[in-house]
Structures are given as C-alpha cells and as structure tokens.
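PROTEIN DATA CARD
Card holder: Adenylate cyclase
Chain length: 184
Origin: Spongiactinospora rosea
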Amino acid sequence: MAGETQEVEVKYLVTDLRVLEESLARQGAILSAPVRQDDQAYAEPGWAYGQSKIGVAFARLRTQGGRHYFTVKKPLANEMACLERETEVADREQMHEAVIAMGFQPTVRIVKTRRTARLDGMTICVDEVEHAGVFVEIERTVDATESGTAVQEQLDAFACSLGVRLQRTTDTYDSLVRAALTPA
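Structure generated from the sequence above:
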C-alpha cells in the first residue's frame, strides 16, 4: 500500500443549515455553487446490507454536470476511511453494463445537491440528500498507512469547534438512503 492514499471523512446530520453556513463562513470556508450528483452504488457479489464493509470493494457511477465518473472504494479501518480510485468515463450506460459484467450488484441510487469548500487541507461538503436529509462531510486525503481513525478524530475536533449542533453518523449515504426507503 506504499504510495497509496485513502479518503478519510466524518459525516454529520445538520439540524440548522443556516447556522452551519454562517459558522463555515466565519472560518473562511466559502461554499461553492450547488451541483447535482446522481450516483448509482454497487456492491461486490455476495455482500449484503448488515454485513461489514471493511475490505470489500464498492463501486459508484456518478453523473455531475453532464460528466460521468466511475469510482471504486475499499474501506480500511471503517466505512469512512477508504482506498479510492476514480476516473471519468464517456458513457454512463456502457460503464453500468461493464460494472454488472464484472459481477457487481446495483444497490441504491443516491441523488444529492452538493456544495463544497476547501479549508486547511480539508474538503467540506454540504449535501442535501434526497430521502435522507442535509449532511456535512469533512474529509482529508492521507497516505494509506496513516491511521484513518486518528484522522477522523482530528476532523471531528474541527466539526466540534464550529459550535453548531450536529449529529454524527457512521453510515454512508447508500445505507442512509436505503434505510429511509425501506419500510419498517
């Protein structure tokens, strides 16, 4: 894994978006214009919700601004500390068919509106996720040998320093959307 990187993040349900936006602005984090992201998530054959995601490869096909991106993530320490590879693809439907041919199974479609900001080596994403709510993700890309949980502690400390009421979640968007759409 030498030379590889991992994306490490923390995620929070936002209770008051306006207060969060004001706090981020005071910190110097100016959010971008909103962009719509339409994601199809995929899982390895044999994996099912309720099983551990650690060490399992997951794929995503995203359309944003008329462009398509294929991503593979493999959770390391937990679901929010992942090895990640991403590339742009020309044809979403053909890539979908290729992912299916590789044996991956479609799981959940996630549609969200995202605004981003960069601050002190962090990327801050404010996401309005259809069926799940408004969330803020704070992430950093670090060497794969770094402790993802230690980085998450640093990111959590930053989130707490904002002075905004946030509810931390360790669920990924696919799990949150699935739970919202699954009858009790």
